[in-house]
Amino acid sequence: MSAPKKTSDIVSALNDFEDIKLTDKMFGKFAEHMYTLAGVDLPLTPKNHALIRNRIVKLLRRHSLKSYEEYWAMIERGGAELTSEFISALTTNMTSFYRESNHFDFLTGALPELSKKFGSDIRLWCCAASTGQEPYTIAMTACEALGDQYKKARLLATDIDLQVLKKASIGTYEEREMQGLPPAQRSKYFEKVKAQGEEFWRAKDQIHNMIRFAPFNLMTPKYEFQHQFHVIFCRNVLIYFDEATTKKVIDNLTACLAPGGYLVLGHSESGNVKHTHLKPLSRAVYQKI
């Protein structure tokens, strides 16, 4: 059996990676690839240079590579796993339960109205599901707003990042990830479970079964769904897109929205909407007319 590595050896190995230089040329290749895959706009700035360097250096360690050029050569050879890994590394996933809570107050009032108007199933889409806190918040809101009729609600939750989508579909969270969830909702819609000696919170079937999780890329040229949606949440995504990509995504989302339905964006994104068929209602909430 080989002797365990000394702490000094581990620190030295990490420092070796810190010495690897990311040239502007390689930065450009990674940034362009991310734009092509996910529409994320990363112009060359010190902040973005540090972001790409710090995120990808972890992948160099994972694959025992010695340069960014070696990792780029792997990407060029292709493969779904590498693509997923790359997207996940450069995607920022900041989320919490009831984030920007006024949107869920709005949804509470809108859902009964939509149920009366459309009668059949209410179709909702959360198109940046991340690790799941947002779609589960939408599901809880639907249960509260619709009462016994909550089964009318059908929620599609998508994300381009397969790793966070997998976590979302499992619906299990550590205590620190339950931030923002009021005690009443926590006890009503989640249950404590144990795994490997640790305690977690798991979404109960009432909200878990309401949601269908699936991968989806908002850069898809045309969104083809069988039915239109009555509510679409696309929050804190457009901030990563350039103006042209934002317009294309808004156009596609509007086409997927039923007349009278609602589009909900992030608070900082309301200035990005310039569409003749969208009427602003409240902060970052729009209705299709």
Automatic annotation (TrEMBL):
The record, for Pfam families, names: CheR, CheR_N
Q: Give the catalytic activity.
A: L-glutamyl-[protein] + S-adenosyl-L-methionine = [protein]-L-glutamate 5-O-methyl ester + S-adenosyl-L-homocysteine
Q: Does the keyword tRNA processing apply?
A: no
Recorded GO MF terms: protein-glutamate O-methyltransferase activity
EC annotation? 2.1.1.80
| Domain of life assignment | Bacteria
Keywords recorded for this protein, A-Z: Methyltransferase, S-adenosyl-L-methionine, Transferase
Concerning InterPro entries, the annotation shows: Bact_Chemotaxis_MeTrfase (IPR050903), Chemotaxis_MeTrfase_CheR (IPR026024), CheR_C (IPR022642), CheR_MeTrfase (IPR000780), CheR_N (IPR022641), CheR_N_sf (IPR036804), SAM-dependent_MTases_sf (IPR029063)
Q: Where is the CheR-type methyltransferase domain?
A: 15-270
- Does the record carry S-adenosyl-L-methionine as a key word? yes
Membrane-spanning ranges: none
Which example biological process does GO assign this protein? methylation
Identify this protein by name.
protein-glutamate O-methyltransferase
